[in-house]
Amino acid sequence: MKSSLNDKFLVASSIAGDEEAFGKIYDKYVDEIYCFVFTRVKNNKEEAQDLTSETFLKAWQYVNSSEKMVENIRALLYKISRNLIIDNYRKNGNQLQSIDDSIVQTLADKSKSPQDATDQKMEVEKIISCLESLSQEAKEIITMRYMQDLSVSEISKILGKKAGAIRVALHRAKNQIKDQLKKK
Amino acid sequence: MIMVFGKYEKILSERASEISPDKSWKKNFRQELLAEIRMSEQWQKPKSSFISRIGLNFFVAKNALRPVMAGFLVLTVSFYGTIFTVQGAKASLPGDTLYPVKIGIENVKISLVFSDEKKAELEMEFAGKRLEEAHEIINNKEDNVEDKLKTAIDKFENDIESVQKRLEKIEKQLPSEGKSLEVSKMVNEKTEELEKGLIIIKEKISGLSDKKEDPKDTQEKESVEKDILENKEQENDGTSSEVKKSELSETTTPENLKTVEKADSKSNESSLAQAKQETKEEKVKSEKDEKMIASLDSALKKVEEANTKSLEVFVKKVTDTGDDSLKKDAVEKIQKKIEKIEVKITEKEKNIEKQEAEAKTGQDVKTGAEQVSTTTKDQFLNTKDDQAAKTETDQVKNQQAQDKTVSDNLKEAKKEETKKAIDEAKKMLSEPEKTTLNEVVEKVKQIKIDK
Predict the structure, then answer these.
(1) Structure pTM?
(2) Which 3-state string (H, E, C) describes chain B?
(3) Tell me, what's the ipTM?
């Protein structure tokens, strides 16, 4: 899901005073930003809602006050939400996590039949254990790429690194997961 | 192995799609976010103009919008030749080749904004442009004025109708959405300006048509036509030619006489044809003027409706906010509206009186002529059949007189009703502790000006 030309029009229109244009940006990205936050705050619904709200308010402030035109509103939203999650963890004395363990149980609960639930649970457990063996940054890159469907350039903007470095990190993380899966 | 990893990619992606926030939270926070934006300093700051701001953004944000601008230029150049075409389109008038381009650009501008408030602002701006075009068309006095004016006024009506629909939507918005207050106020003030503009155009057209239909000119033309006809009749009797023949017989040959006869007849025929043609042209012109005035009247009606609606929305939003200074503003606007209605009614009454006086003068002349004719007829009415026919005519006349009395009574009753509604609205406005402003507007809406 790349940032489209439409996003640029929406950003330009909201700067021009059309608040409904920012409403459209909200409609488009609220679900995925909420999901991104939710999986990083130990599935705490209230906390996820608060951080998502703050993300959009901060994004609006940035869009309106920045001298530079926002090129990729989606990447900006992820970057803001990630910073807010880090701040939140710092306040509570914890570390940022790329994905929460409770994901396994949630997914199993949502499966259609008991058999499906068991199968899914096993699969998810397998991948979570593989992810756990990765470094914090590699875990984050993998979840951003495959869970949030962010492009390499978007991840590079969010993490403040070069796209090449992200590509290399992603390649290494995938190889590590493959090795882990071979062993299991 | 890639396939194996692909399976996990799918699981992760599916997992993401299953996590979504509560619908009610999503909806509530959206409203909070937009309300927060409206209250922010940047949004509250008076803006130069929406178009100039968006224009500024288009050019300041050159990096982000470079592809957009490039696409726009490519489209413009490929469809319309050069960038100057767009500039030319801005100055175009209905009937010009580039006029559809101008309207197209305006439609794109409307579709590029999302909120009904912004769309309404743009539509009001474009309606104002249509009126400027109408002024220009009347002043230019080119061919097909009526068609060009109709195009501009039709588009004007569409814009006003659309604004009214948007006002209906804005009316339902939450009180926190402060922009609706500003927009309804803007529409209310702008519709008053537009109404004045429409009246000026209407007066111009009426002035032109009055000039064309100057009774003196018409009488003169009619007498000329009559003279020509009489001349022709005389010619047919041979009298005129004989006079001329006798005048010329002493000095001219028979061949010359024939030529004179032929020339006289031809000149009379061509003068008659010219006079007939002029009368026909005038009739066509007056019909066209009537059509233009009807179209302007329809636009005036739409503007009036939008004005009332905007007042209704403004008053409703003011009541919701409970702000005293805004309430004062709303009271002033309602007073102004009532005064305007009173002025319209007085003007209407004056016009009716004038028309009735004119009709009476005409009727007196007609009655005088009829009386003479009846007296003459009565002298010859001897048979029973003739007497029966006379009684029937008298009965029809009595019936017509009765109908007129009923219609006059109805008109008087309506007049009384309107006056009563105005007085009630004024009374309600002077007693704010007893009635709300919304109720006063409802009362004002009930006042109908009899057409």
Answers:
(1) 0.53
(2) CHHHHHHHHHHHHHHHHHCCCCHHHHHHHHHHHHHHHHHCHHHHCCCCCHHHHHHHHHHHCHHHHHHHHHHHHHHHHHHHCCHHHHHHHHCCCCCCCCHHHHHHHHHHHHHCCCCHHHHHHHHHHHHHHHHHHHHHHHHHCCCCHHHHHHHHHHHHHHHHHHHHHHHHHHHCCCCCCCHHHHHHHHHHHHHHHHHHHHHHHHHHHHHHHHHHCCHHHHHHHHHHHHHHHHHHHHHHHCHHHHHHHHHHHCCCCHHHHHHHHHHHHHHHHHHHHHHHHHHHHHHHHHHHHHHHHHHHHHHHHHHHHHHHHHHHHHHHHHHHHCCHHHHHHHHHHHHHHHHHHHHHHHHHHHHHHHHHHHHHHHHHHHHHHHHHHHHHHHHHCCCHHHHHHHHHHHHHHHHHHHHHHHHHHHHHHHHHHHHHHHHHHHHHHHCCCCCCHHHHHHHHHHCCCCC
(3) 0.75
